[in-house]
Write a structure and sequence with these properties.
With 211 residues, this protein is an alpha/beta fold. Helix content is 28%, strand content 26%. β6 (97-101) and β7 (107-110) form a beta hairpin. The chain is globular, with a radius of gyration of 17 Å. It starts with 9 loop residues before the first strand and ends with a helix.
């Protein structure tokens, strides 16, 4: 893939703070950040990658604000806006519930697909309100990508309807994150890529918002 004439990838922040790197809570996100940075810079350009994209919204006047955070938010003029949820630990699914088990054997209920969907929707609502992001709502086509950096996905497992292997990258594919990213983009946007009026300005928009 030719990279001449394209702009360098931008990571926000350019380096993760020490408190993030030393926090066990963020260990899985650090793995993904480092892998994305090394792999994208080898073969891709024009990406903006935001770690910890926070949002706040009020459904109506007088209501308490709701907050949330996407582990990563990526954008590219062709490949679109991709909202990412990272879940560390050993991932399992049983009786309608997702679980993450840490190295101490403690098991926690998680809901990665609902989280990534909600984050994508709420961030899209924010973008829709921006004059520079005008041209019609595209909330249902903000790509969603779930990454399990510590766990594999058993081939014979029975997963819920919201699960699709094309929007999931597990431990076995951590050395092929670019392939997983582009597959998630294609899953949501199709072969023609992101068809949104804001596409040519996507890079500048995220820089204005998060840099």
């Amino acid at each position: 893939m030719g990279l001449s004439g394209l702009q360098a990838n931008i990571f926000i922040p350019n380096e993760l703070p020490r408190r993030i790197r030393e926090s066990s809570k963020h260990r899985a996100e650090v793995l993904v950040y480092d892998a994305l940075k090394s792999q994208l810079n080898l073969s891709q350009r024009d990406w903006v990658i935001v770690h910890s994209a926070r949002w706040m919204t009020k459904m109506h006047a007088g209501s308490a604000p709701k907050t949330g955070e996407a582990d990563f938010l990526l954008t590219h003029p062709k490949h679109g806006v991709i909202c990412v949820e990272v879940k560390g630990g050993k991932i399992s699914y049983s009786d309608g519930q997702w679980y993450s088990t840490n190295r101490y054997g403690e098991r926690f209920e998680i809901d990665p697909f609902n989280q990534v969907e909600r984050n994508a929707y709420e961030l899209a609502r924010k973008f829709d309100k921006m004059k520079r992001w005008s041209g019609g709502s595209d909330r249902d086509k903000y790509a969603q990508w779930v990454i399990f950096p510590d766990s594999t996905s058993p081939a014979n497992a029975i997963y819920p309807p919201e699960y699709d292997s094309q929007m999931v990258t597990d431990q076995l594919a951590m050395d092929k994150l670019v392939e997983g990213l582009l597959e998630a983009s294609s899953f949501w946007y199709g072969e023609d890529g992101w068809q949104h009026p804001a596409a040519p300005h996507a890079r500048g928009l995220l820089l204005d918002l998060f840099e």
